Amino acid sequence: MYKKLAVLVLAVAFSAFSVFAQVAQTRTAIAGQKYKIKGVVVAKEDTSTFVVRDSVGVDTRIVIAPNASIKNNAFFGGDKFPVSALVRGLTMEVEGIGESTGSVSVNKVRFDKSNLLTAQAIDSRVTPAEERLTAAEQNAERVSGQIDELMAISNAAKGGAKAAQDTADAAVAGVNATNKRISDLDDYVVQSTATVNFRVNSSVLSADAKASLDQVAAAAKSLKGYVIEVTGYASSEGNAKQNKLLSERRAKAVKDYLIETHEVDLRRFSDSYGFGSLKAVADNSTREGREQNRRVEIRLMVSRGLNQTVEVKSASNDNE
């Protein structure tokens, strides 16, 4: 047993040099050979071509055949899914035959339905339409490479059972770090704030208000995974129902300006809201106080999972 373990340690040590040279090894399939692979989808090249990374960090390029059986694991058969339902982050098991191109032609795909739903939810939030490679994917590749490197160093230097334990600890730490990154995707923090003010009974943006919104749009374009929150308010003039409608029109005017002038994508906005004369920031019994309460507050928020270093700032505003 000890002799076999020593041979295994030496084999890993010699392979450490190739591990250092690249983030993940790539399998070249042998034409005509049967393969059964279980791993995580780390890339989707087109509608039917994927890259699957197994538990030891080896990537395999697979091409799902048009007549492939794609189902979730179930006691009785399972549901059928189209190939378009498969996304990056899904853990699945595939069976197929090697092709002359080095890829594996897959005719059977199986996965847990709950894992599919989770992967689809994450993919829809993490993968912006305007980019092929997101910050989250880059981070996942970097973490995977760090785990592979730690495994090689640990096994080559220490050997034996202790190296195996160190490897397991490093892998768990890497997985925990990746899981935290994923869990932080829906954790939004305020990056900057701005306030624009309006005339009495008006929802028309002034030149100063537009200048402030120009700054918000410029700041947003430098970020990834951002969301803009727009909230409208009114002073105490008029009745409560009219004030609420007026605050909603003011919030809509801000959104329309950012969308039409700066082409901010609709999906970048959270649901806006008009509070009417509620939540006043100044005394409504004075003229100056009412001027401050006729406002729209804009908060630029970023996903902590995609922006590891965020700083809360306040946008300068001459209207306040």
Give a written overview of the molecule.
By secondary structure, the protein is α/β, with parallel strands linked by helices. It has 2 domains: 2-185, OB fold (Dihydrolipoamide Acetyltransferase, E2P) (Beta Barrel); 187-314, 60s Ribosomal Protein L30, Chain: A (2-Layer Sandwich), CATH 3.30.1330. Helix content is 39%, strand content 25%. The protein contains 7 helices and 11 strands. It has a 5-stranded mixed beta barrel. Strands 9-8-10-7-11 form a 5-stranded mixed beta sheet. Strand 8, helix 6 and strand 9 (273-274) form a beta-alpha-beta unit. It is elongated. The chain starts with a helix and ends in a 6-residue tail after the last strand. Residues 2-22, 181-185 and 309-320 have low confidence and may be disordered.
Low-confidence stretches: 2-22, 181-185, 309-320
Helix proportion range: 25-40%
Strand order of the largest sheet: 2-3-4-6-5
Tell me which CATH architecture of the largest domain applies here.
Beta Barrel
Beta-strand portion reads 25-35%
| Radius of gyration over all CA atoms, rounded | 27 Å
Spell out the CATH superfamily of the largest domain: Nucleic acid-binding proteins
Q: Helices and strands: which structural class?
A: alpha/beta
CATH class of the largest domain: Mainly Beta
Enumerate how many helices there are, as a single number: 7
Number of domains: 2
